[in-house]
Design goal:
By secondary structure, the protein is an alpha+beta fold. It is built from four helices and seven strands. β5 and β6 form a beta hairpin. It is elongated and about 65 Å long.
Length: 156
Amino acid sequence: MTAETCARCRQRPSELTRGTEPLCGSCWSLWRAELVQALGGHDRIEREAEGYVSTWVPLGGVQVGAHRPDHGADQFEVACPLCEASWVGAIGSVCAWCARREAEVIAEHRRALLDGPMEHETMREWAHRLADAVKAGVVEMAVARAAWDRRCRRAA
């Protein structure tokens, strides 16, 4: 069985999918950055006593243990710096748990986006967010148009 090739760069083996599109870790991270931009223009930031701390970090495993040639030439004991999950994989490989969680967050944002403008948001601002979400591949054009049409019918 051969690994599927990344649909974006067409060079590296895929590690994750965006919908049904296979992506390598690097391209998935680039897509994630585009998505963050589309969903609000910046990483989620939480205020802590010492300053601002981003709640999203690069989702790549860092080496925490021995080289594991029994799993493959480039395989090591790695852990996620965000959630501390550990696995045997390539250094920098994507944390599957964080990827699943982020997919859930994306789905929540998508649902909220399609519900209509936020409380203090104009229709124009919402239209820009819809357009950004379409560009980032979070929402299909037909779905965004349908949400817009529903909202306009309610406003009329």
